[in-house]
Backbone:
C-alpha cells in the first residue's frame, strides 16, 4: 500500500497510508529502527452506537498544505453525516508530532462523537519486551523499551485531557489488540499497563451541536530517555499544539522560498510538484548526513527488507539536485558522512545504514568458482566523486572540502584509476546500477569517467600536478574504451554492457545490447555531447524500445524488466514505467531543444510525471502499466531528485533562450526580476 504522506525533521519521521493510518515511525535515525514494522495505527470513531474505522467507505483527500510539510486531510462519511478535517506535522525542531482534528456534523443532529487513536508499536523493530502504560504525570500513554520512549496524548482545548484509554496484549491467542476494545459499546477498558507484545488505544470525546464543529488535538513525543518527554511536554504546553502546527508551517515556507525564483515559466502543475519534491526529499535526509532511498516499508512485507538505506549512488544524485536547487549545506552534510564510509582501498560497498553501519546485501564476495570478487557497484564511487566536484564548483567552500581531499577523494580516485582492465581501459566488472547483473556496464563506465574527470579537476585545483596527469590519463582511457568497446557498429548504438569471457578461455565477451534507460547516463554525466550522432542514435532507439504502449504510458527501466512485472508482453510493455526513466527522457529532450517550441515539448515527460503523482504529490518508483497504481515504494526519493534536476535544467535552458543576445544577461520581466531566475548556474 503506497504511502500518502511523509512528515519528518531529520530525526523523527512518520508515514501515512491511503486510509490516513500511521504506517512507519523512524527515530532517532531516518531509515533504521522502524518502530511500527509497517503495522497500521488504526484511526476511527464511535458515533450513533457503532464504531467506524477509516476505510474505503470514507471519502478521503490527503495532501500537503502548499509549500509546507504540513499534511492536510479531509475525511467524509456521508451515511454517518460526519466530516473530519485534519492537519498533521512533525515539528521542524523538536521530536514532536501534532495532529489537529476538526470534527463537523453534516446530519443536523446534536450528538456525541468519540474519536479513537490506536498505537501499535514494535519498538526498535520488535514487539518483544515492549511496555505500554498510562502515565498520570502526562495524562497520556507511554510506550517504551530500553532507550526508546513514545508518549501519546491529546484532548480538547484548553485542558487537553483523554476521555479513555486501554493498554493490552496483541497478536496472541485470544488477544487481537486494544482496537477490538473500541468496537461494540465504544468504551475502553482503562487497563493501565501491559508488557510484551502490546498495543494501546486512546479516545477523545466531543459533543457536536447540529451542524456544529469542534476541534481536538492528538500528539506523539519521541525521546531517548524519560527526561526527554518532560522537556517535550513543556514545549507542547508552552506553545500549544495549534502554535506548533503554525510555527512548523512557517518554517517550511521560509525554507522553501529562500530563493527569489520566478515560477511563471513553468506549467501550473509542475511548479507545486517541484516544491513538494524538495520538501519530501528533505524528510529523507538524516541529521547525521545519510540520505535514504525511501521510508516506505511496504516492500518489506514481501522481501523482508526495505529501502531505508543510504545507497551512495542515489544519495549522490539526490544531493546534486539539492545543490542545484540552492541547498548546499545538505550536500556537504552527506559528503562528510560518505567520507567516513569509504574503504581504505577506495570504494563503497553496496549500501549503508544511517548510523554508518553496513547495510544488507545480496552481492556475493566470491564468484561461481569460489574466487574472491569485490561486492561493489563501482558507479557509486564514481558518482560521489562527481557530485563532490560539482558541489565544490558551485560553492567554492575550500575549507569544508579540504578535509575530504585525502581521506576520501584521493582514495576513491586512486581506486577508479587502478580498478581497470589494461587491455581495454575500461573498469573491471562490478554490479550494475539496477543491482541485478555483473559485468562492464556502459553506465558504470560513464560514472567512472565522470569521477576521474572530477578528480582531475580537484587535483588541478589543489595543485597536485602528478595526480592530475594520472587521473586525466585514466579518464581518457576510460572514454576511449567506451567508444571502442561499448559501441556497436552493426546496430548503430551503444551496448548496455559487456560480460567478459573467462580468462584464457579464448571466447569473446558477451555483448549485451538490451535497450536500457541507464544509457541516458552517457548524456547527463557528460561523456558525450548531446549532438553526438552516436548518442542521438542510441537514445532515440532506447526511447522507442522502452515506451510503454498502454494508456498509462511512460518509459520502462529496460526491456524485459521482471521487477514487479505484471505482464511479459515485452512488445507492448517492455517493463513497468519508471519515474526516473521519464525524467531522464525529459532531461535529454531539454538538452536537445533548439527553440522555445522544442523546449516546451520537452516538458511532456515531466507533465506525465505530474499527472501520475499521488494526490499529495509523491512519486513512486514505478507504476502498474495498466492501472497506473504505484508499485514498489512511494515515495522514491531518487524519483523526486530527478524531477527537481529536470526542472532546473529546463529553467536554465529557457533562461539561455531568453537572454539578451547582446550581453547574455537575463531579460527582466514586468516585476523587475530576471525572466526566470538568476541563480541557476
Residues:
Amino acid at each position: 500500500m503506497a504511502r500518502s504522506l511523509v512528515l519528518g525533521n531529520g530525526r523523527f519521521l512518520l508515514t501515512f497510508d491511503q486510509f490516513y493510518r500511521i504506517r512507519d515511525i523512524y527515530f532517532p535515525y531516518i531509515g533504521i529502527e522502524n518502530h511500527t514494522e509497517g503495522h497500521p495505527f488504526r484511526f476511527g470513531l464511535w458515533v450513533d452506537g457503532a464504531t467506524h474505522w477509516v476505510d474505503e467507505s470514507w471519502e478521503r483527500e490527503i495532501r500537503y498544505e502548499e509549500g509546507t510539510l504540513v499534511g492536510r486531510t479531509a475525511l467524509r462519511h456521508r451515511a454517518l453525516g460526519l466530516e473530519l478535517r485534519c492537519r498533521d506535522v512533525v515539528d521542524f525542531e523538536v521530536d514532536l508530532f501534532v495532529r489537529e482534528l476538526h470534527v463537523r456534523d453534516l446530519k443536523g443532529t446534536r450528538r456525541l462523537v468519540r474519536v479513537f487513536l490506536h498505537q501499535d508499536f514494535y519498538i526498535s523493530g520488535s514487539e518483544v519486551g515492549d511496555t505500554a502504560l498510562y502515565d498520570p504525570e502526562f495524562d497520556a500513554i507511554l510506550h517504551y523499551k530500553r532507550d526508546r520512549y513514545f508518549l501519546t496524548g491529546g484532548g480538547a482545548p484548553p485542558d487537553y485531557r483523554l476521555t479513555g484509554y486501554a493498554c493490552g496484549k496483541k497478536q496472541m491467542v485470544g488477544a487481537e489488540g486494544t482496537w477490538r476494545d473500541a468496537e461494540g459499546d465504544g468504551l475502553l477498558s482503562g487497563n493501565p499497563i501491559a508488557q510484551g507484545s502490546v498495543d494501546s488505544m486512546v479516545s477523545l470525546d466531543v459533543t457536536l451541536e447540529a451542524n456544529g464543529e469542534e476541534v481536538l488535538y492528538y500528539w506523539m513525543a519521541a525521546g531517548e530517555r524519560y527526561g526527554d518527554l518532560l522537556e517535550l511536554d513543556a514545549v507542547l504546553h508552552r506553545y500549544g499544539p495549534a502554535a506548533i502546527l503554525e510555527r512548523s508551517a512557517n518554517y517550511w515556507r521560509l525554507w522553501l522560498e529562500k530563493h527569489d525564483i520566478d515560477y511563471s515559466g513553468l506549467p501550473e502543475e509542475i511548479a507545486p510538484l517541484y516544491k513538494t519534491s524538495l520538501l519530501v526529499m528533505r524528510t529523507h535526509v538524516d541529521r547525521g548526513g545519510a540520505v535514504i532511498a525511501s521510508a516506505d516499508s511496504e516492500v518489506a512485507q514481501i522481501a523482508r527488507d526495505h529501502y531505508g538505506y543510504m545507497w551512495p549512488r542515489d544519495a549522490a544524485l539526490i544531493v546534486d539536485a539539492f545543490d542545484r536547487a540552492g541547498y548546499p549545506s545538505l550536500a556537504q552534510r552527506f559528503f562528510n558522512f560518505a567520507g567516513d564510509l569509504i574503504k581504505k582501498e577506495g570504494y563503497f560497498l553496496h549500501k549503508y545504514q544511517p548510523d554508518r553501519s553496513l547495510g544488507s546485501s545480496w552481492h556475493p564476495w566470491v564468484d561461481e568458482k569460489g574466487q574472491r570478487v569485490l561486492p561493489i557497484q563501482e558507479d557509486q564511487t564514481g558518482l560521489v566523486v562527481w557530485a563532490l566536484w560539482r558541489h565544490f564548483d558551485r560553492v567554492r567552500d575550500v575549507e569544508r572540502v579540504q578535509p575530504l581531499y585525502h581521506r576520501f577523494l584521493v582514495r576513491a580516485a586512486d581506486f577508479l584509476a587502478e580498478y581497470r582492465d589494461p587491455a581495454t581501459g575500461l573498469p573491471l566488472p562490478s554490479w550494475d546500477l539496477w543491482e541485478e547483473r555483473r559485468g562492464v556496464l556502459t553506465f558504470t563506465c560513464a560514472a567512472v569517467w565522470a569521477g576521474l574527470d572530477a578528480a582531475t579537476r580537484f587535483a588541478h585545483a589543489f595543485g597536485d600536478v602528478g595526480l592530475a596527469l594520472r587521473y586525466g590519463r585514466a579518464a581518457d582511457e576510460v572514454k576511449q574504451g567506451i567508444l571502442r568497446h561499448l559501441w556497436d557498429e552493426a546496430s548503430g548504438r551503444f551496448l548496455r554492457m559487456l560480460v567478459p569471457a573467462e580468462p584464457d578461455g579464448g571466447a569473446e565477451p558477451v555483448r549485451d545490447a538490451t535497450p536500457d534507460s541507464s544509457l541516458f547516463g552517457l548524456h547527463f554525466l557528460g561523456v558525450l555531447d548531446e549532438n553526438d550522432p552516436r548518442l542521438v542514435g542510441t537514445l532515440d532507439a532506447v526511447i522507442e524500445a522502452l515506451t510503454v504502449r498502454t494508456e498509462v504510458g511512460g518509459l520502462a527501466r529496460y526491456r524485459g524488466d521482471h521487477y514487479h512485472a505484471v505482464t511479459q508482453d515485452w512488445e507492448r510493455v517492455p517493463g513497468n514505467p519508471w519515474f526516473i526513466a521519464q525524467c531522464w527522457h525529459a532531461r535529454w529532450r531539454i538538452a536537445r531543444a533548439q527553440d522555445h517550441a522544442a523546449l516546451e515539448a520537452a516538458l511532456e515527460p515531466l507533465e506525465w510525471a505530474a499527472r501520475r503523482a499521488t494526490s499529495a504529490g509523491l512519486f513512486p518508483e514505478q507504476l502498474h502499466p495498466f492501472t497506473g497504481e504505484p508499485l514498489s515504494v512511494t515515495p522514491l526519493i531518487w524519483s523526486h531528485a530527478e524531477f527537481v534536476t529536470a526542472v532546473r535544467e529546463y529553467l536554465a535552458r529557457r533562461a539561455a533562450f531568453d537572454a539578451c543576445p547582446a550581453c547574455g544577461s537575463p531579460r527582466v520581466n514586468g516585476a523587475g526580476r530576471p525572466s526566470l531566475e538568476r541563480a541557476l548556474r
